[in-house]
Design goal:
- The protein is mainly alpha-helical.
- It has one domain.
- Helix content is 83%, strand content 0%.
- It contains eleven helices and no strands.
- Helix 7 runs antiparallel to helix 11.
- The radius of gyration is 25 Å and the shape is globular.
- The two termini are 49 Å apart.
- About 4% of the residues have low confidence.
Length: 342
Amino acid sequence: MADDTKVLDISWQTILKIAIAGGIFYLLYLIRDILIWVIFALIISILFNPAINFLKKFMPRALAVILVYVAIFGIVGISIYLVAPIFVAEIKQFSQSFPVYFERVSPTFRGLGIEAFESFEKFTKTMESELSAVSSSVFNAIGVIFGGLFSTLTILSIAIFLSLEEEGFEKVIRALTPKKYEAVVLNILAKSQWKVSGWFGTRILTSFFIGLMTFLICYVLNIDYAVSFGIFAGVFNFIPIVGPIISGAVIAVIVASAVWLKAVFFTVAFILIQQIEGNILTPILAKKFIGLPPVLVLVSLLVGGKLWGLMGALLAIPVAGIFFEFLKDFLKKKKEEKAVVL
């Protein structure tokens, strides 16, 4: 009778390779926070590189890097400084008037079967539990990534050094990529960097446009909380398709709880500016860029937000864009190889 017993023969070389791979993964796990810092710094340098490369034509690279970083973070800082006091005052005013708004809109939501609107106390408890859970996860994630001044300065320092270095990102990729794939990888990265940076810049400009126009509509119609509504609409406009629908609906409901006629005018005007943004402004700004698929943006926002909080949600988009370019190039080559075989 033949012996069907199979013997698993594993060489010492294979065992050594597995041990080394396990050791590397364990080391990466131990330094995972530092790796996240480096990844975020790489993404920031990728997003800023097109502007730096453009200014480099007229000045030394070091000066271009300083101008870009100071300009971007300066604009963000000044904007927050100017808008924050008004925003806080409006939020405080809205919180004081919220019970009145709640009594006006709750019958409609109760009719839709939403239990949280059965009473103001129940709504408050529901919102408190939801917000505490969300804020806890978001701030914990931000605490891990930007856990204090040191980590923030570390990320910015790495990003600046990568930007100062001529082809700094490309040198990192060359060091990590096998020689035979180097040219292909660098070519795809160049395309994806231009595309992702262009998409990001386009979304920021269009979101600023929507936020500003929403503020102006509320100001002209004498709607309260114009600054807060403008910020809300601008931030949510960054999320394709779904964001404008959510922001427009929420603002319209709040306005309707005070004066329904103003809500009608606001809704019409908001739809109009969305049409201008979608059919005129975005095509003009993005004519040189192939848009990232909306589903890719939504999924990357969800995954990034789940893993790393608010900053992760935003910075996951460039990562997804680069991955999308690699996948598209891979599928294109596979299709060409099949065509040659046939």
